[in-house]
């Protein structure tokens, strides 16, 4: 009889892809079906994020709750980034946990699941060429890891400690995986990595260079693949060739994440981001110039140690200059294994909170203006999810979320849609024929 698996995924797209790999790998050895009812699960996995402190605190309270609710004999496993950095300490603090599996050890899930208190968290482990079975939460949109780990050393960030050294996955394997997902119905691929546009250094020689721009070119030759997205690129590696490929390649969706973190050059230096405010604005201006229809999203941290009111004003200045279509903003959270956590200039959390509110309030105004201007506009939308009440959702090429009335027959189609109603988070529209 098939066992039931309950898996909760916290954090970024990479964690979501790791969960798909976990499901695929478990099903290779034993029969598992997914459940969303915790009480009926034989195996409960929490796939964690540790980029900020909140999800870590949530983990321990959740283990307690899950342990009370689970059926007798059900196992609890902790996977992902928090597993990587806390390792065996998780079992010490929460003995109800049966195993701990690091973010870079996913292929070992079948080994650890049947061992009491197994801990596999090595960040030196290399599973870049491991062949996982094909499992996709949504077969219409394939997430594909193109590199793992991160070689940067942003002083606030725990990721290099949880995901280890950056290693690119050979392009032949990537092309194979994408072709397979296209054969299974995907028209869109999302390429994942901590610094996607730093791809390929390890395969590059003077005679045969290998970089992200070339990878994009190779991937776009795949027949049947209509859309390519990627996250996250790093501003430091946004050279002209890459931006020109982004602008001119019709298969590349016109949505780009340009993570700012701070608008103050002084703070950027202390964050060790490798660019200045001027470099950042120059890259965004280039995107706006060569690809006016592109949307730009960003990540901003407020209250990094030593951030003064003047530094924060510089961040607000960049917000005004670029008018990001999407903003992910966070209060700085001191993390273990990071340099910035040691700084003696920590900003008062109330001050950081006030800055965050100011930033988000201004962004909301900008976003409202951007979205209201969409009324009557026409976008091509890839319909990828059925919704209740005879509705279907999808994304426009530039990443906007759309809802239209419609049913299954629209699923997997890319069609022109006219915007009939706008709101801050999504657009409503109707499918049109282009003569309309
Ligand atoms: N490689 C990605 C970042 C991955 S972490 C990049 O360069 O953009 C995702 C986001 O979490 C970061 O962009 C940052 O904005 C936020 N973040 C990371 N560490 C943080 C910390 N200590 N406190 C608050 N936010 C943090
Ligand atoms: Fe983190 Fe900086 Fe890498 S934000 S993931 S260390 S690029």
Question: What features would you describe in this structure?
Answer:
With 436 residues, the chain is an alpha/beta fold. It folds into 3 domains: 118 residues, Methylthiotransferase, N-terminal domain (Rossmann fold), CATH 3.40.50.12160; 232 residues, Alpha-Beta Horseshoe (pyruvate-formate lyase- activating enzyme); 54 residues, Nucleic acid-binding proteins (OB fold (Dihydrolipoamide Acetyltransferase, E2P), Beta Barrel), CATH 2.40.50. It is 33% helix and 23% strand. The protein has a 6-stranded parallel β-sheet with strand order 2-1-3-4-5-6, sandwiched between helices. Helix 8 runs parallel beside helix 9 and helix 11 runs parallel beside helix 12. The longest helix is centred in the C-terminal third of the chain and has 24 residues. The N and C termini lie far apart (54 Å). The structure holds S-adenosyl-L-homocysteine and FE3-S4 cluster. The site of S-adenosyl-L-homocysteine has 17 residues, from strand 13.
Task: Indicate the topology.
Layout: E1 3-9, H1 13-29, E2 32-34, E3 43-48, H2 53-69, E4 75-80, H3 81-86, H4 89-93, E5 99-102, H5 109-112, E6 118-120, E7 141-145, E8 147-148, H6 159-163, E9 167-168, H7 171-183, E10 188-192, H8 212-219, E11 227-231, H9 240-248, E12 255-257, H10 265-271, H11 277-290, E13 295-302, H12 309-322, E14 326-331, H13 349-372, E15 378-387, E16 391-396, E17 401-405, E18 414-422, E19 427-431
Parallel strand pairs: 1-2, 1-3, 3-4, 4-5, 5-6, 7-10, 10-11, 12-13, 13-14, 17-19
Antiparallel strand pairs: 8-9, 15-16, 15-18, 16-17, 18-19
Helix pairs in contact: 8-9, 11-12
The structure holds S-adenosyl-L-homocysteine and FE3-S4 cluster (F3S).
The site of FE3-S4 cluster has 9 residues, from helix 6.
């Amino acid at each position: 009889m098939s066992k039931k698996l309950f898996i909760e995924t916290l954090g970024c797209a990479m964690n979501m892809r790791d969960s798909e790999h976990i499901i695929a790998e478990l099903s290779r050895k034993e029969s598992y079906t997914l459940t969303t009812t915790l009480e009926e699960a034989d195996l409960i996995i929490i796939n964690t994020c540790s980029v900020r402190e909140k999800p870590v605190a949530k983990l321990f309270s959740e283990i307690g709750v899950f342990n009370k609710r689970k059926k007798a004999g059900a196992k609890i496993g902790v996977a992902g980034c928090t597993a990587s950095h806390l390792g065996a300490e998780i079992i010490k603090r929460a003995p109800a946990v049966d195993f701990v599996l690091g973010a870079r050890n996913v292929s070992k899930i079948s080994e650890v699941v049947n061992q009491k208190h197994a801990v596999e968290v090595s960040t030196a482990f290399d599973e870049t060429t491991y062949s996982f079975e094909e499992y996709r939460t949504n077969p219409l949109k394939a997430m594909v890891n193109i590199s793992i780990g991160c070689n940067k050393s942003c002083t606030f960030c725990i990721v290099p400690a949880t995901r280890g050294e950056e290693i690119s996955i050979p392009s032949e394997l990537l092309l194979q995986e994408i072709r397979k997902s296209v054969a299974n119905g995907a028209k869109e691929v999302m390429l994942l990595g901590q610094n996607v546009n730093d791809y390929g250094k390890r395969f590059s020689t003077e005679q045969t260079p290998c970089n992200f721009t070339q990878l994009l070119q190779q991937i776009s030759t795949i027949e049947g693949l209509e859309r390519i997205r990627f996250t996250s690129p790093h501003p430091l590696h946004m050279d002209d060739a890459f931006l020109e490929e982004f602008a001119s390649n019709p298969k590349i969706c016109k949505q780009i994440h340009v993570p700012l973190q701070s608008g103050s050059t002084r703070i950027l230096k202390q964050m060790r981001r490798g660019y200045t405010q001027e470099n950042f604005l120059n890259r965004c201006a280039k995107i706006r110039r060569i690809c006016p229809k592109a949307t730009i999203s960003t990540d901003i941290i407020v209250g990094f140690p030593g951030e003064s009111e003047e530094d924060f004003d510089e961040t607000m200045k960049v917000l005004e200059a670029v008018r990001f279509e999407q903003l992910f903003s966070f209060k700085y959270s001191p993390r273990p294994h990071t340099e910035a956590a040691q700084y003696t200039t920590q900003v008062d959390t109330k001050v950081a909170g006030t800055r965050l509110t100011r930033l988000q309030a201004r962004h909301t105004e900008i976003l409202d203006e951007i979205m209201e201007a969409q009324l009557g506009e026409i976008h091509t939308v890839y319909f990828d999810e059925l919704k209740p009440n005879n509705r279907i959702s999808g994304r426009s090429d530039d990443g906007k979320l759309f809802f239209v009335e419609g049913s299954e027959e629209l699923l997997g189609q890319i069609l022109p849609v006219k915007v009939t109603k706008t709101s801050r988070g999504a657009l409503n529209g109707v499918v049109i024929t282009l003569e309309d």
